[in-house]
């Protein structure tokens, strides 16, 4: 249930873009529906994971790839998707991304083997990365600058937050009353309907200046991240000294180094490395990687705990997360106002401390846990802290960049959070699996393993807090309250 923070409008958008001929409300509906599907699919599968594991015979560690396959490709191709929309046309890329996402959802829903589902989730992630940036640029080129555009972007942001918030409930309803397959298949009729509307009603626009598309950069960063994550997972079964772990880890680091070399020499790099010479950009992105690594896995382990240990049904699990969802939305909504009073750095640290305290508390879970005593309190703290942290960190990053780079830096923050989340899930899943294996998979061992994941996650979040205190610049960021 990860909410994407607001993305600043890019100053490089064409000033000659035409306003859509369709009614404004219809453009808003189509674009926000596409964004809703993208964010929903980050979280909707969490509640279905135990059913997926039973249905396809996945291992404890293999289960994480149902989530990570989507997140890694989403993160790796997100910046490329934004560039492609500017180059080839926002409508065209929106349609392409949504079609890819919808077809992959169908393939995932019909999967008969684990590799088929993981492959479908990988393609889904690519489709989402192509689709999501196009949704925002269509809005910014369809509505005139001023209050109308501000309201449109605010609605887009709220829909994204809502997609993440309701994911657990939607997943629970579909899994319990239909099948886990419907958490993916539900995207097919919705995607087809939005796709038809987009073809009929959206108006094409693109950026006038010709620019190269950095496909090698996107492939390298995605491949490198995937190899590192795979190597981390292999350490649990084969040990850190094994070739099956060291080789993919080493290969991943080499591929990431190659990515940095390509970006340093590219004329139109996917990730301009010069931006990281700016302290606000580099420190905020580093803090977001660590915060994402700790916070992203919260829903994953909670879903497994309440179903595998406390024997919740999928619908019960989804309903149990409603207070958590409301808390993260609340934190996201009050964050801008608090930031104007406290300052971005103070609010970011405060939010991370609140979330870390929830993780420490959640780490005490055991086999005899209850909803009121074990799930509700720590979950609200973790979610509220996550909501409070995201916006100020993003604001600090964009405050250090030139106006022309605002959209790119906002995209980098999103990418950093997703990449941190993917690596964090790999690390924490490996930690949990090692404890579970030592206890021979009994319910008490499951509870201990999931609790250990939260304890280690709180340590990672503590590192993020220290980095924020030492490296983030202390400044009050202007935040539009549109």
Structure description:
With 482 residues, the protein is mainly α. Mean pLDDT is 83; it is low at 1-20 and 476-482. It contains 18 helices and no strands.
What are the defining features of this structure?
18 helices; disordered C terminus; MFS transporter; antibiotic resistance; mainly alpha; 0% strand; 482 residues; membrane; globular; transmembrane; MFS; 76% helix
Write the layout of secondary structure elements.
Layout: H1 24-43, H2 49-56, H3 64-88, H4 90-109, H5 114-142, H6 147-177, H7 182-185, H8 187-201, H9 215-238, H10 243-265, H11 279-295, H12 298-309, H13 314-320, H14 322-342, H15 344-362, H16 371-399, H17 406-438, H18 443-471
Helix pairs in contact: 1-5, 1-6, 1-8, 3-4, 3-5, 3-9, 3-17, 4-5, 4-8, 5-6, 6-13, 6-14, 9-10, 9-17, 11-16, 11-17, 11-18, 12-18, 14-15, 14-16, 15-16, 15-18, 16-17, 17-18
Gist of the model:
The chain is an all-alpha fold.
Rg from Cα: 21 Å
Number of strands: 0
Order of helices and strands: HHHHHHHHHHHHHHHHHH
Runs with pLDDT <50, length 5+? Answer: 1-20, 476-482
Strand content: under 5%
Mean pLDDT: 83
Largest sheet: none
Question: Which geometry do the CA atoms define?
Answer: globular
Question: Residue share in helices?
Answer: over 70%
Distance between the termini: 24 Å
Q: What's the number of helices?
A: 18
Please identify the structural class as seen in this structure: mainly alpha
């Amino acid at each position: 249930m990860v909410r994407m923070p607001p993305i600043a409008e890019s100053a490089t958008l064409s000033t000659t873009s035409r306003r859509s001929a369709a009614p404004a409300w219809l453009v808003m509906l189509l674009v926000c529906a596409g964004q809703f599907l993208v964010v929903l699919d980050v979280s909707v599968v969490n509640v279905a994971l135990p059913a997926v594991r039973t249905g396809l015979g996945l291992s404890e560690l293999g289960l994480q790839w149902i989530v990570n396959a989507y997140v890694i490709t989403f993160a790796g191709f997100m910046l490329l998707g934004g560039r492609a929309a500017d180059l080839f046309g926002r409508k065209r890329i929106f349609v392409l991304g949504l079609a890819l996402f919808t077809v992959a959802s169908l393939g995932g829903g019909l999967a008969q083997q684990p590799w088929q589902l993981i492959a479908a989730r990988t393609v889904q992630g690519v489709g989402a990365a192509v689709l999501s940036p196009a949704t925002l640029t269509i809005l910014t080129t369809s509505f005139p600058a001023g209050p109308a555009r501000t309201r449109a972007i605010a609605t887009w942001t709220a829909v994204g937050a809502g997609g993440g918030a309701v994911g657990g409930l939607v997943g629970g309803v579909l899994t319990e009353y239909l099948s886990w397959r419907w958490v993916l298949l539900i995207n097919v009729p919705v995607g087809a309907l939005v796709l038809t509307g987009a073809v009929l009603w959206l108006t094409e626009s693109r950026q006038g200046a010709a620019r190269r598309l950095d496909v090698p950069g996107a492939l390298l960063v995605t491949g490198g991240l995937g190899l590192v994550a795979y190597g981390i997972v292999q350490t649990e079964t084969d040990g850190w000294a094994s070739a099956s772990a060291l080789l993919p880890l080493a290969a991943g680091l080499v591929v990431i180094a190659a990515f940095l070399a390509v970006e340093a020499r590219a004329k139109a790099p996917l990730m301009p490395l010069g931006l990281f010479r700016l302290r606000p950009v580099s420190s905020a992105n580093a803090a977001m990687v660590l915060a994402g690594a700790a916070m992203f896995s919260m829903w994953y382990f909670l879903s497994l705990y309440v179903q595998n240990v406390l024997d919740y049904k999928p619908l019960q699990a989804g309903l149990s997360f409603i207070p958590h969802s409301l808390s993260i939305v609340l934190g996201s909504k009050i964050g801008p106002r608090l930031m104007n009073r406290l300052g971005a750095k103070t609010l970011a640290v405060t939010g991370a401390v609140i979330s870390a305290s929830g993780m420490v508390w959640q780490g005490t879970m055991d086999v005899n846990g209850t909803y009121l005593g074990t799930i509700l309190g720590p979950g609200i703290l973790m979610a509220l802290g996550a909501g409070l942290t995201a916006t100020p960190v993003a604001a600090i990053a964009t405050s250090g960049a030139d106006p022309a780079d605002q959209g790119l830096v906002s995209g980098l923050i999103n990418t950093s959070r997703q990449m941190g989340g993917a690596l964090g899930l790999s690390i924490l899943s490996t930690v949990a699996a090692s404890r579970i294996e030592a206890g021979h998979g009994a319910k008490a061992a499951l509870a201990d393993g999931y609790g250990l994941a939260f304890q280690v996650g709180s340590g990672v979040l503590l590192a993020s807090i220290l980095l924020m205190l030492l490296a983030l610049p202390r400044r009050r960021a202007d935040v539009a309250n549109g």
